[in-house]
Amino acid sequence: MAGERIKLVVQERPELGSRATRRLRRQGFVPGVIYGHGNEPRAFAVEERELRRALTGDHGLHAILDVKLEGESKSRASILKDYQRDRVRDTVTHIDLLEVSLDETIQSQVNVVLTGDSVGVREGGVLSQASHQVTVEAKPLEIPEHVDIDITDLGVGDSLRVADLPAREGVAFLDDPDTVIVSVVAPTQEVEEEAEEGAEGEAAEGGEAPEGAAEESAESEAETAADDSGSDEA
Length: 234
Known about the structure:
Elements: E1 5-12, H1 18-26, E2 29-36, E3 39-47, H2 48-54, E4 64-69, E5 76-85, E6 92-99, E7 106-115, H3 119-122, E8 126-129, E9 133-138, E10 146-150, E11 159-161, E12 172-173, E13 180-185, H4 189-207, H5 211-233
Parallel strand pairs: 1-4, 2-6, 7-10
Antiparallel strand pairs: 1-3, 2-3, 4-5, 5-6, 7-9, 8-13, 9-12, 11-13
């Protein structure tokens, strides 16, 4: 369970706008906003290294953050609602924190982790994971870090769905129970390659005349030209 609570001290961000935001990032800060639970949104800035510390480790992105804003005596229990990344530098450029009540349920996307060694894969099948996350509803401290599903008995042609996920006390799965998470399918690469080779052979036979036929046609044309020439001379 993601029951660990991480303290995160942030600074008030009085200046808004793109210029102020760029200046903060150059100084090693990540701008953000915290909202929810009936409170007015507050803009803040947090040191990039502190944010990285808070959002790495076993708790990951599902950690409960005890956010301490300058000028406030109490911390705010929050979760990471959204974030933006720089595609080139792969750094976080902005975060949204949602204040939550630890006694109320929330919804969250949780990664699905496959465990075990599929019997179908050992027999030559191909493992296909269609869903990598599921939507859960639980109290903040009960949101799992990930959901495990055992694929040991999964044979060729078998699949596991949301309905097959192991039940967890206090956690509800909100996705359609029939949604396929993982399946093992028969290998199709060899069949496709054979079909492509057959199509190429048919195209060669239909598009090009046999070598002997081409030679016969050339000889026939030469003989006809010779006969026409002799007739003209006569």
